[in-house]
Amino acid sequence: MKKKLSLLLAGALTAVSLAGCGPTPPAAAPAGSAAPAGGDAAAPAAPAGGDTAAPAANAELNLIIASNQTSLDNPYSYGMDKFKEVVEDVSGGKISVTVHKGTLGENENELIEKLEMGAASMVVASPGFMTSIGVPEVDIFSLNYLFDSFDHWESCLDGEFGDKMKQTVIDKTNNRFRIMAYWSSSVRDYYGKKDITKPDDLKGMTIRTQSSQVQQDFWKACGAIPTSVAWGELYQALQQGVVDSAENDYTSFMLKEHHKTDNGKHIAETHHDYTTRLLLMSGQFYDSLTDEQKGWIDQGVEACTAEEREVVYRMFKESKEKVIADGAVVTNFEDLDIDAFKALALPIQDKFAADNNMTAELEMIRAAAGQ
Question: Structure pTM?
């Protein structure tokens, strides 16, 4: 499937929320039982406000899928709605799906806690939280310039490398977490108070970035000063000059209108991070299902993953056009000294791989580039 194309997870989740025994599997609610309250009813095939309607009366299993994104135009929204549509259809209504779009929590750590407690069946989350619960290998997804294109990203995540990471998560979390699929939040770029074309242009600038250590190391190598700001507070931080710049994908910062601030209007297509997001379920819960139920869910996962990625790739182009129309200044990818940025990223990749016994995986990804 080739195409042309958060609130910050502020470090580790608390020991209380993620330590100890595995999650309580979400119970199959009795037929006719109500879904968690909130929001308006939604048509299955298109994004809708808040939560979806209560489960069907004949449902034998009620699932809750959630992301932290409140925007109805976010790709996650389309993907989750597709999951609901397909699963309810192929199961003949025996599985009912409730969709929460930011209404179970706008912080990803809240969603992970709810997945562990059994208050959610499936969630979309960044991989970084797993580094604090004994799976440091997942921070490979945070390495800048790991992937060269959406095609490269897909070939790796849908192939041997992606399968190895799925098994690593199952093994290292004792099946507390199971990666059902790999989603994307597009490719991340710099945006700030001035144009940049090379790493030296970032010297002395504060930049709001992700909490991953390898991400922080990269921006420090550029001469920038990585800064933690909550995603929901970033518009104000840019507007008031609390930070000089940030980095994210076109769609995410367009929807939040960061590009309309003085410290967000200059965009440089660094394309430093083809992002990976995890569609997660409790492995223990999944294993407790019947083969028929697993089959229905697997069909839904396949369909919603294709939908989410399709929207990501489409919205990359549309969001870029929108921010330019709003007055943002864009320096295109081909006009940047990308080799200079990559030169800073490669030693960080090599060190991470050596420290985490992942040299073979890193070489697997590099070998797939350009194929």
Answer: 0.82
